[in-house]
Amino acid sequence: MNTTASNTTAPSTTAPNAPAPHTTLLNTAVLRTEFRLFRREPGAVFWILLFPTLLLVILGSIPSFRESDDALGGQRLIDVYVPVAVLISLIMAGVQSMPQALTGYRERGILRRMSATPVRPAALLTAQMTVQGAAALVSALLALAVGRIAFGVRLPGQPVGYLVALALAALAALALGSVVAAVSGTTKIAGAVGTMVFFPMMFCAGLWLPVQSMPHTLARIVGVTPFGAAARALGEAATGHWPGWEHLGVLALWTVLLTAAAARWFRWE
Fold first, then answer.
1. Is there a domain that residue 51 lies in?
2. pLDDT score recorded for residue 237
3. DSSP state letter for 189
4. Alpha carbon distance 91, 197 (integer Å)
5. Would the pLDDT of 15 be above 70?
6. SS3 assignment, position 116
7. How confident is the model at residue 22, as a pLDDT?
8. 76 secondary structure, DSSP code
């Protein structure tokens, strides 16, 4: 009787789509390197981590900023400016710091050389977004803490809604920064484009005039911008209300559109 021998193969213990261990280690090394490089940039550390809180302290030292304002529903100006300080850190990280770092890598050929190594350029992009986003979130926590301790600003009355709005605002800021990096060939161009975007976004965030105090028509226009919507969402969560779904929707839509634009226009060389 003939018997047919069948070859059996031991099942693999590694998922087919799971990243190889060495790839994960390389990506982690890239992330650690980016954190170290960020710490060595005094300009980025100051403008992202310290400047928003310093501005909040300066404004809080003005007596009129610590008085209730009926136009703001009984809130003080310093209460309104805490979310603004939070948004400033996001704008600084997303629009100013990250694009110049990425275009600098591209300009010096670092991204091109990385494409020939096991480390993919996408790992560097992910590490940059992680570092800049983490720095902005630490700055946000610092502004909230100083506002509470120094000026008696209440902590967000709707903390979950505040975190949701903050996360969406951070994603929108990083997506906007990715677009700036995508359309900029050099660091000088990235700086110029970032500055052009920076000041309108700061206005929309309410730096010169709180969104709550803007005329109705202007407030509606500002509300469809990413940071105008973020200012409204954070302000509502700070007063104990769930952020309006229209504001969260605007943030989500901008994040999707900007991410798609960055993916289409970004070049590694």
1. yes
2. 94
3. H
4. 9
5. no
6. coil
7. 64
8. B
Residues 84, 103: Cα–Cα separation, whole Å = 28
Cα distance between residue 139 and residue 134, in whole Å:
9
Torsions phi, psi for 11 (to 5 deg): -65, 145
Tell me if 178 is assigned to some domain: yes
Q: Residue 15 domain-assigned?
A: no
Tokens standing for residue 247 = 């504001």
CA triplet 21, 22, 25: central angle to 5 degrees? 90
Neighbours of 98 (CB within 10 A): 29
Residue 114 predicted with pLDDT over 90: no
Q: What angle do CA 70, 73, 74 make, to 5 degrees?
A: 65
- Model's pTM, two decimal places? 0.84
Query: What DSSP state is assigned to residue 20?
Result: P
Helices (H), the chain: 21-39, 42-44, 51-60, 77-91, 98-107, 110-114, 121-151, 159-183, 187-205, 216-222, 226-238, 245-265
Residues 6+ apart with CB under 8 A from 234: 83, 86, 87, 162, 165, 166, 169, 243
Please answer whether residues 76 and 160 qualify as being in contact, where contact means their C-beta atoms are separated by less than 8 angstroms: no
Give the structural domain span for 146: 26-265
> What is the number of helices (H) and of strands (E) in the chain?
12, 0
The structure tokens listed for 134 are 């983490």
Domain total in the chain? 1
Structure tokens at 130: 């992680």
Q: Which of 195, 175, 181 has the alpha carbon at shortest distance from 266? A: 181
The answer as to whether 19 is a domain residue is: no
